[in-house]
Every structure is written in C-alpha cells, then in structure tokens.
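explain this:
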Amino acid sequence: MSTRNALLCLAAIAISPVALRAQGLVAVQNYSADFKNEIPFQVNVTAQGGYDTLNYKANPLGSFESWFLQAGIGAVYTRPDQTTPLSFSLDTSVVNYIDGMPRFDDTFYNVRAALNFEHRFSERLRISNNMLLTYGMEPNNAFGFGGSTTLWNGQYFYGYNNFNVSYAWTPRFSTTTSYTIDGTIYDDDVIGNAENRYSHLFAQQFAYAINQQTSLTAEYRYRMTIFDSAPTKDYHSHFALVGVDHAWSSRTSGSVRVGAEFYENDSTSNTAPYAEAALNYTVDRQTYARWFASLGYGAAELGGFASRYGLNTGLQVNHQIDKRLSVNGGISYGYSTFDNPGGVDGREHSIFLNAGLGYQVLDNLMLNAQYSYSTLNSNDVLREFDRHRISLGATASF
C-alpha cells in the first residue's frame, strides 16, 4: 500500500464521529484540544511581514536571506458538551519570499486542520478521536518529535489520527485500546524517496486508580513503520511500559511512561530504554505552560544509518499580563544518535527558541511581534545551520 493511499485512509478515519482523549501520551507530540472552554465559531484573518535568514555553515547553496510577506485566514470552534465534546480548527496562509529561495519556488502554502471529539456512551464506555492534518514548509522537529526532517526541504504533508476506546470495568480499573496512523510526504521527489513513510501504532493500556488524582498504568504497544520508496529502512518496535497519571488540581496534571523499546529492521535489532512525559499547567485564563519529553527511536532522516535514537524535550509558556498585553515563549532541545554499523555513528543537537508579544488594540484586533532562533550542531558539518526569523503582524477576529 503506497503512502498516499494510506493517508487517504487516514483522512477517511478522521471524519468519523469520535474525539480527542489519547490515552497516556500516545499523542503528546500532536495537537490536543481543551474541552473546558467554549469558543463559539470564530474566524481570524492575519497579515504579517518579516525577515528570515538561514545559514548552512558549510553549504552556502542552501542558505538564504530574504524579506517575506504572509497572509492567512483561519477558524476555530470548541463545544464542551457533557456527552459529545467537540473541537475544530483550520488555519491557512500564503508566504512569499521577496528575495527568492534556493531550490524551491518563492511562494509557499500552509494548511493545518484539527478535528477532535469524544462520545461517552455511558459512565463506563467512551470512544474518542484526535486528528491533525498539515501541509506546510516548516520543519516540525522541535515540537513534532521528528515528524519531519530537521533541515529546510520545501513543502511536505504530515497526517495523524488516533482513535481509542476506553472502558471502566470497575470504579478503579479501566482499559484503553487504541490505533494510530501517521505519515509524511514531501513534494520534492529527491527528499521524498528517502523520507516518505507511514506508521501504524496499536496500543493496549491497563489503568488502576489509586484515588481521584492518581492512576497507575501498564501498557503494550506495537509500531510498524513503512517507507514508500526505501523498503530496506522499514522497521517495527514493541513497547513494554508502566506509568503514572496524576492531577494535582483541575488546572495542573502530568503523565509519565517508562519502559523498554524492542526495535528491529533488516540490518539491526536493539533493545533500549523508552520514556515519555508531559505536564500541563493553567492559571485561570492568564497563564498556560506545557512541557513534554520523549526518549526513543525515530524514523526521520535515517539515510544510510541502521537506526536513529534520541531525546526530544520542550517547554512552551503563554501569559496574559493584563487585558491588552500578552507574552509567549518556548524552548525545545533534541539530541539524536545515528547507528552506523561498521562506520562512524552520527550525533547531533538541535535547539529551537521562540518569543513573542501580543497587544490587543481593539476587542477584535491584535498586533503581534515574533522572533525565533534555531540551530543544529552535528558531526556531519554539511547539516549544521543557524536560523533567525523575525516578524510583525496583526490578527483580526470575527
């Protein structure tokens, strides 16, 4: 089955009537809905301009410096229904690089759609679904757990869908069965021949509630990753995990999973530690913080290596200073090792920083300023780069 056909199946699954409640941290790297706050249907129109510079330390052909203009429109809706909560968002934009781009066209397109909903048949039985589809140009390695390549490689499509069924057998003991499909497709055939792929993930979780705040879990997962044009890189993993979910309050909660990942492909078979964690913190509607971390094998940019193993972690904070002024910022770090039997192993570190200000001029008009910095340090000097991006813009809501 080709990658494109698999993602068409993903899209069909995504429109079925179910919602987001990914058990454990299966979907910690993807969009998550907040069903607590109701947002009536709202349309946002954005416009911004800025300056973007990317410098490859030993590969000037891929470097660029350019002013850019960007315009977009989006919509968001959340319904915190007791039986069937629903969350939907859609964002689209067009970016034009005035001074041109090497290798690619000067104009790029971004689309991001998320649909999440849940249905509670009874106090015991619940089904839910979490769907995200994106088509864009930016690497999402920083907050996407390596869903795309770290380097700028033009437009690509990423799709994700998680469906799960939860059943409470007793007031304390429950099980969750889930299926996840995700995939990545690049427009550039040279990149796509090495990177286009899709994965199936099956998971079975058992949870025991010690009290209303804390649950202990045990979980088995099986993941199968298939490359569209590079079948020698196909691999599968088995996971044996235990964990804890804890809510300190209705505003602060966290989850941890630890265990082993059994990784195997045509050229290697390894067992390594696996871990994932997340923490969400909210104070009224003024401050929101989210931290995540994941340790395990990944599929992006395998190239001629037998496997890629690494750590990804990030923190994002948003704070409303007063009724008009808001600030946001984040940092993420990634470390990967590439196994090369009989050769030199690869090692690299990536850092992503972002900061921004928002000022509410009118009830439906906000001005904003954003800055981001990313860098990659590698023992392959051809991959190393630094990037700065700054923008000023406005968002109108209707």
